[in-house]
Specification:
5-stranded mixed β-sheet, 2 domains, Aspartate Aminotransferase, domain 1, 34% helix, alpha/beta, 13 strands, single chain, 8-stranded mixed β-sheet, transferase, Aspartate Aminotransferase, domain 2, threonine-phosphate decarboxylase activity
């Protein structure tokens, strides 16, 4: 692991949806980390029911209170956003920092937003030989903004909460992207709801587990002063009425129970995927383990060619070389049901053979 300030050649604006945007209808999607078969029918009904209120300006008070109650926080510690992506832009625009650092490999939008706001961004690169684990001592002491994902996209590493808390300092903002935490059984290692960590800002997304990427809904948890700063940087009515209805519904007891069940199912399906990948052997394919998110990162020779052959065979996967700290040997695979995984592993075996010719 080391720190660098060079922006590098990575395309920070490339995301998984690009893999399926043009001919996605013909592809089985393992590129986008949104849970399959979502949103559920009951959630679609809630969203549809909100459409009668479209003539009025959005009122986020009920949704904000519901999110606050879900985490045991006062409403002053909650800000609803148009997905976690908007939160990264708000942080970059509203906070006045000197030495921002992003821990990579991870979701690239935080760094892109900071760069767009004019910041020179330092990178702490986690290494494969350390299983992409976090060593808090390697984050520069002078960093006054640190961004880390947990569990981390694309490595699927779940960092211990205690290790992340070690990054907290007086005068430092510590941003923890927990967009995939609700896919972790029991949400172990979560920091959402903690008020004892100085400078802590936790981001959550409701688009992954509930299949709402097209609706854009997420939220920020932080101290009231930081929330007020971020809110001032938002436009008026930033979250639509249907998104607010979805937010309130997705933090209800019924939804939390369904999400918990889905997390266990994802864990079982991920174990099935990893078992299939292990059949290729460590010389042919390496899996980053333990994987704890709804996706798996793999390394294999000729990965770019393998990815192209997979497309010809009907499967889209996420290229890894747009993530700082990774190169063209890496691919990210979203976890899917066992039947889809079995078909995919067969296709991967064929793609690896074709790439080796």
């Amino acid at each position: 692991m080391h720190t660098e300030h060079d922006g590098g050649p990575h395309d920070l604006r490339h995301h998984g949806d690009a893999e399926v945007r043009d001919d996605g209808a013909a592809l089985t999607d393992l590129a986008v980390n949104v849970r399959a078969d979502t949103p559920p029918a009951w959630l679609r009904e809630v969203i549809a029911g909100s459409l009668d209120g479209l003539a009025a300006y959005p009122d986020g008070r009920a949704a904000r209170a519901a999110v606050a109650a879900r985490h045991g926080l006062p409403v002053e510690r909650v800000l609803l956003t148009a997905g976690a992506a908007e939160a990264f832009v708000l942080l970059a625009r509203a906070l006045k920092v000197r030495q921002p650092v992003v821990v990579h490999p991870q979701f690239t939008e935080p760094e892109a937003a900071l760069r767009d706001a004019g910041y020179a961004v330092g990178r702490v690169l986690l290494r494969r030989r350390d299983d992409f684990g976090l060593d808090p001592s390697l984050v520069p002491e002078d960093a006054d903004l640190v961004v880390i994902g947990n569990p981390t996209n694309p490595t699927s590493v779940l960092h211990p909460a205690a290790s992340i808390v070690e990054l907290a300092r007086p005068g430092r903002t510590l941003v923890v992207d927990e967009a995939f935490m609700d896919a972790v059984p029991g949400e172990r290692e979560a920091l959402a709801g903690r008020t004892d960590v100085p400078g802590l800002v936790v981001l959550r997304s409701l688009t992954k587990t509930w299949g709402l990427a097209g609706l854009r809904i997420g939220y920020v948890l932080a101290d009231p002063g930081t929330i007020a700063e971020l809110e001032r940087a938002q436009p008026l009515w930033p979250v639509s009425t249907p998104a607010l209805a979805a937010a309130e519904a997705c933090v209800s007891p019924r939804a939390l129970a369904e999400a918990a069940h889905a997390a266990h199912r994802v864990a079982a399906d991920r174990a099935h995927l990893v078992a299939g990948l292990r059949e290729f052997g460590p010389d042919g394919l390496q899996v980053v383990e333990p994987a704890e998110g709804p996706f798996v990162l793999i390394r294999l020779a000729r990965a770019a060619a393998v990815r192209r052959h997979l497309r010809d065979l009907g499967f889209a996967v996420r290229r890894g070389d747009t993530f700082p700290g990774l190169n063209e040997e890496w691919l990210r695979l979203a976890v899917r049901d066992r039947t889809t995984v079995n078909r995919f592993v067969q296709a991967l075996d064929r793609a690896v053979t074709l790439a080796g010719r």
